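REQUEST FORM: STRUCTURE PREDICTION
Request ID: SP-0412
Submitted by: Lab K.M.
Chain count: 1
Length (residues): 241
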Amino acid sequence: MKDIDLKPPAPVAAQVLKLVGILLILSFFVDLGVLMTAPQFDNLQWQLNLINQLIDRGVTPLIGFALLYAGFWIHNAADGSVAPPGQNPPWKDWRFWAFVLSSLLGLLFLLVIPMQFSVTGQLAEQANEQINQQAAQAEARIEQEQQQLKAIADSGRLADILKSGQVPPQQQAILQQLQQDPKALDKQAGQARDQVRKTQNQTIAQTQRDAMTSRLRGGLRSFLLAIGFITIGWSGLRESR
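STATUS: Completed
RESULT:
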């Protein structure tokens, strides 16, 4: 009687592990389905967010398949019965398809790596183009302001214009310097251009660093998830043969 009382907990534990594993796997696909309800495949930022969400949620099904694997192992260990070779084809057992799904998810996370690299690179290129456009616009404004101030300085009415108080304070300070140093305007414009280019280079460098960090983080995590899924999938398929 004692032996009979001790045997049931193992199958119950196996059922619990399998149930929790299935729920975790289903929750992952539910989340993925919600993310895909309003697809925007022409939007690179949406694509990157989808990839990052997929990687962030990848641990959930991985734990689910690990629990399934443990549940199957406990069930088999407690049952102690093995079907004769060739009696039941593997594909007629739902456990076979669970491990196939695990292997396919592993393949998916391997494919995610080049996808993430590509999308991150395209977003970085777009950001760099925008930074370059902003820098070009800033230099154009500097050039326009420089031409306006030169026109005022060459008009012969510089003293009268300064006395009128109609010039903005910043331009007035430059015009006052022009009275003492005719090259002050060129120096000021050159410093402004240097500052714009310095900010441009720093921003581009930061964009490249952010892209590289995102690639390394996403690529390594996706690779580790792929190893986990493929290991569980292949191990289960090998044992189910």
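NOTES: Residues 1-6 have pLDDT under 50 and may be disordered.
Reviewed by: T.R.
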